[in-house]
């Protein structure tokens, strides 16, 4: 269960020891998180990475394969990623931002969240390590993506989730034929159990013993943002945080692009978004701590509900080092954020996107971001998976049915709030 590779390997963040390529959850010596370390000089010597070489690649994350921990001989199968980066003029107008972009991973292939990026890189390695069964501890979206991609690759999947997960996220896992185990506890209980299972069985858990590989998949969102801005870095990134991995990896992606000479060096500030009901990282940022104080999650933003985030301390330090900030918003603001993005840009995001949208609005209101700065808001999941968050928001759902007659329709229109006489003008 090991493979050798000239261009990348596991390295400990703390003690600097290296471990080649094998399934490992943390440094066996000091228990610190492991990260993939690349020898970009060797990579550049083998096949130079240029804007052109990337643009010649497929229209998905595999165009960046040379900058990812992808085992030799791996043949990419699924066209994951390369989601739209759209100019958000309408949302910008509402919140006082004139240079706002939305990176829309709510339409990521194949399971409508940014987790498809991390899972595809993790499973490429799971196959190389020889795992027949893969799994994860999940707050929902990861479960969906592991189940779908394991099915496609012919791997068995065993997925553990907190028992109170949204029904849609459970259904979106079961449909792929995955084994799903609901655990009577919160995500942090589930994750601890998965660590024990990974030690006991020869299973590949994408966010436990494959975590260093998994996490690198998040970099592709950063690469895409820079490429889609015309090989430019933005001034600011606003990103939701659960374990605190994605926000760090977007920064890592930007730094690699600078080191490779693919974009011009410039400071980018990172802003983290959480729900108040689970806000250990935003609390740490605001208090100026180098650690996080674990919390017991209580929020509708379940995909972000990790009370003891693995990359929390590192994310907190990184955000402050860039001159950024973090905020958290109430569940009521989360739902308003979902509606605001849908009404202004036609993008239906899940609760996590409501968090990010509401936090973005607050950052502009606080003056932490100036109106004309280029800011990218990371929308990471799809609203169709969390429709229960909107129950009770629209009285139309139980409005009376109108008889199929023009005059009844006209009467009905006049009863409605907000219908203007203008709309009722007859056609010539
Ligand atoms: C997992 C997840 C995140 C956060 O990811 P981390 O890398 O754990 O911080 C954000 N948004 C959605 C929708 C997610 O599912
Ligand atoms: Zn170490």
UniProtKB/TrEMBL annotation:
Its cofactor is pyridoxal 5'-phosphate. GO terms for biological process: isoleucine biosynthetic process; L-serine catabolic process; L-threonine catabolic process; threonine biosynthetic process. It holds the Pfam family PALP. It comes from the Bacteria. Keywords: Lyase, Pyridoxal phosphate. Its EC number is 4.2.3.1. InterPro entries: Ser/Thr_Dehydratase, Thr_synthase-like, TrpB-like_PALP, TrpB-like_PALP_sf. SUPFAM superfamilies: Tryptophan synthase beta subunit-like PLP-dependent enzymes (SSF53686). CDD domains: Thr-synth_1. Residues 79-381 form the Tryptophan synthase beta chain-like PALP domain. The modification N6-(pyridoxal phosphate)lysine is found at residue 115. GO terms for molecular function: L-serine ammonia-lyase activity; threonine deaminase activity; threonine synthase activity. Belongs to the threonine synthase family. This is Threonine synthase. It comes from Granulicella tundricola (strain ATCC BAA-1859 / DSM 23138 / MP5ACTX9).
